[in-house]
From TrEMBL:
InterPro entries for this protein: DUF421, UPF0702_alpha/beta_dom_sf
Name this polypeptide is given: DUF421 domain-containing protein
PANTHER family attached to this UniProt entry: UPF0702 TRANSMEMBRANE PROTEIN YCAP
Nuclease keyword on record: no
Span of domain YetF C-terminal: 79-209
Subcellular location: Cell membrane
Amino acid sequence: MLKGILATLASIVLLFILTKLMGNKQIAQMNLFDYVVGITIGSIAAEMATNLDGDTIGCAVAMTIFALVAFGISVATNKSLRLREFFAGRPIVLMRNGKLYRGGLKAAHLDLSEFLAVARLAGYYDLSEVSGAIFEHNGSISFLPFAQHRPYTPADASIAVKPQEILYDVILDGRIMDDALHKAGKDREWLKKHMRAEGYKDEREILLALAGTDDTVTFFKNEP
């Protein structure tokens, strides 16, 4: 029993360290090699935690080797375009100037039904609205609509708009976040003044507050 608990804790700690080494990536950002390495390391970790009669040290070494190889490939692909294309692949053109290429679909291992489903999920039910489509190396598809079908923007009407900026969560779950306040160039006195102006006496009355570098702050009441 104790051996199983220790092996499980060791696998969790090692997994945490190795994933930190390899870096944080969302599933959608992974290429095929990243995905395979992740599954393999997870499988070895499960074996390490559940097989009490197995070679715990051997499993740990195998996980470490996989992680180091993945890390080394990541460093190499960041420095070499050819290695990046070899391991991650290159984008594949599926449509250009409204023309759909069968060769591109074949190279991406997509059939027409799959392509149409992805297009609908992207909001394109009519392919005549699409000028270009590219199959990215992470398996997603990017669509470029024709100019007459793209969303209307303020630039089309020559309207000047205020640039958007990063907003910081200066209050989170009823607690003032001093680090976020500092990043926004504000202090507690400034925040308390705006809280009083909005009728709040205590930060615990606020679920979330967002502030930028200007003099405005948005409060969300801590509703039951």
